[in-house]
Amino acid sequence: MKYKIVADSSCDLNKEIKEKVDIDLVPFNISVDDEHFRDDESLNVNHLIQAMKNSPNPVKTSCPSPGDFLEKYKEGDNVFAVTISANLSGTYNSALLAKDMAMDSDSNKFVHVFNSKSASIGETLIALKIDELIKKGLGNMEIVTKVEEYIGGMKTFFILESLDNLIKNGRISKTKGIIASVLNFKPIMGSDEEGNIKLIENHRGTKKSFNRLVELIGETGKDFQDKILAISHANAIDKALGLKEKIEKIYNFKEVIVVETKGLSTAYANDGGVILAY
Fold this sequence. Notes:
Blueprint: E1 3-8, H1 15-20, E2 23-26, E3 29-32, E4 35-38, H2 45-54, E5 60-62, H3 66-73, E6 78-83, H4 91-105, E7 110-115, H5 121-135, H6 140-153, E8 156-159, H7 164-168, H8 174-182, E9 188-191, E10 197-201, H9 206-220, E11 228-233, H10 237-250, E12 255-260, H11 263-269, E13 274-277
Parallel strand pairs: 1-2, 1-6, 6-7, 11-12
Antiparallel strand pairs: 3-4, 3-5, 8-9, 8-13, 9-10, 11-13
Helix pairs in contact: 3-4, 5-6
């Protein structure tokens, strides 16, 4: 019986993860004015960042279609799919429609779609958890139960260098964005239990925000020795590695991994943004 892990392209990966785990990505499409980008291996992220900086208009994204997911589902007997938060995109619904189509045509096929209630590196951690449980030989429904529990306990935080994209896309008001810029606020943001974006805390200056983020890990979690913490960054490797070093000095995570954002996550995080999940 062949297992298949599928995720949308918000799931950010690095070379080491790609070599260790087979995660098949279904790409988003991204538009900035008249330029169109497909969020796959051909995407030049730096080009996307520059196009976003040059445009006064919001970045437009279109989620994968049910047909896009269905093509991936056909390649496995037991399929586990992970999508960006259902409250941020219609991707989860596309993946569910594809599930119905796949199982209607093959009654022996198993497909389950997980709403990550997160994005970016949060999806990556869920895919890694699925792979771990498959390799342990757990049954399909055991995997579903344990992964849903994992999603329920997962924390996602992010700090953005620029709020421009959130303002352009109406995620935060223009007035709040201007105030944050003038006062040099670098807000710590995150996801709530339903996968919506929420403000966690406001701090003036990048250094204070990152130091506070490290403290929040200890305040919001425990028993880290069996957990992986993951950091994704949008053209901000120094920030990501500095954060990794601070975390490793204080906490005993099983592993701390760093990846670079691809297109969809970069469209949300913008240049200099850092996302953290565990």
